[in-house]
Amino acid sequence: MFGIELIDAAFLPAAAVALLAGVLSFLSPCVLPIVPPYLAYMTGIGVGGLKSGERSAVVPALFFVMGLSTVFIMMGIAASTFGRMLLQYQDILSRASGAVIIVLGLHFLHIIRIPILDSDARMDVGDKGGSSFGAYVLGLAFAFGWTPCIGPQLGMILSLAASGAEAGRGVSLLAIYALGLGIPFLLSAIFINRAIGLMNRIKPHLKLIERIMGVLLVAVGLALLTGAFTTFAYWLLETFPALANLG
């Protein structure tokens, strides 16, 4: 239809959701407060030295983002593989994933509580601060160790990734999610003093950000449950025929 596979059109809203989820993950109560200490640890100096410009955190931050991106992209490959294996059951799996994501969204909205999502499973990476390799390892550990905390967001993106047959879909969506989480981290390292000031102003609003994430989860869950992503994909193609050139 229109010279493009439906999944290609559906990728556009899914990509927007993945990017927004990454940014909201960065702003979440379990990530934002640890950004300055992590940057300080990766550069091998204290937060005070970081603010005074004693050493730049940009290169370590870049390797940190590469580390967490490695894990997320591997998850994307796994999700795409899983989606292809169960292609004939994708409608059922999509609806089941939607129901689970709605429950996770209700947790963020504090309508129900899931205790495991209020914890983390941090990995001890040893004394590896102050080096690019250590920052990369820390990124790997962060992606694994903070999974209970950012798990609902990841689960949502993985569900969107598994809903298509294309191998590159999962990789692309998880890479976009990693960008949404990683770019603010890099900007924080580049503009450290301004970033710390901005973070201090954001902290009183962390609960609101958590609820916004909950609304996003519920909305995506409903879209998967009702097939609204498919409907929206058709609407995009009918409203913007130029999208057919993507295929």
UniProtKB/TrEMBL annotation:
Residues 16-225 form the Cytochrome C biogenesis protein transmembrane domain. It is a multi-pass membrane protein. The keyword 4Fe-4S does not apply. Keywords: Cytochrome c-type biogenesis, Membrane, Transmembrane, Transmembrane helix. Its main location: membrane. It is found in: Membrane. The chain crosses the membrane at residues 12-35, 56-80, 92-112, 133-154, 174-192, 212-237. It comes from the Bacteria. Belongs to the DsbD family. PANTHER family: CYTOCHROME C-TYPE BIOGENESIS PROTEIN HI_1454-RELATED. This is Cytochrome c biogenesis protein CcdA.
